[in-house]
Write the structure tokens for this entry.
Amino acid sequence: MSIFKRSNPFLAVHYLLLSLAAFLVLFPPYVVFLNAFKGTEEYNVSGVFDLPDSFFNMENFETVMRIGHMGRAFWNTSLILVLALIGNIIIGTMAAYALGRFEFKLKKAILGGYVLATLIPSVTTQVATFSIVKELGLFNTHMAPVLLYLGTDVVQIYIFLQFIRGIPFDLDESAMMEGASLARIFRSVIFPLLMPATATVTIIKTISIYNDMYIPYLYMPAQKLGVVSTSLMKFAGVNSAQWNLISAAVVIILIPTVIMYLFLQRYIFSGIVSGSVK
């Protein structure tokens, strides 16, 4: 009993901080949701925290789907996501397999390189990256962001490495004794056992690509190549913005992400936690 009494003040601070964090996270989407149902005239005369006259006013959503070409934007986003994720998972698992299973010179330097790459601001490399993409003839094509999203990062490498180190070497040796090549071992033994980590990385990467506005805006400025994130810019000008329409577009864009997160959140946590304790 005395233990609980002593811990009560700490629990109170703990819950207070959690409540504050929840408020900071949920309040902006709450304001966006309220203003998504306000017409232009209603938005101009009401406060941003006021409730809309009706939550059944779908005018903003219809306008966003029509003017913002959201259907085409979702198609472009889906195409980029599928191609980028397939390549990213293949490259990431193969890199982690090499780093986790074999000893070779510069292995630690390569691992350090992944960490170092995260410390370099991406904006400082955009001139060189843009020149390469343009020279390859990929500017204003779907393949420009796909190519840039293919590269694996240190978080993916870390997650895959933790799982690979938990796979017994006996499986590799047994496969070798039966005549399997390294490529066959990776394809038939290692990769299937990396499915939990692959699911985790896929979800994290999907959210990252889906929310990215910078790369699609810079490398695919053509209107027909717009993705969901850049579609928001159609409702904002240099000196003004239609915030009620932007709010409606944000709500539409949030729906797939929220659904995916609600159904797959346990894979995110279990994948990261399982990898960290192996």
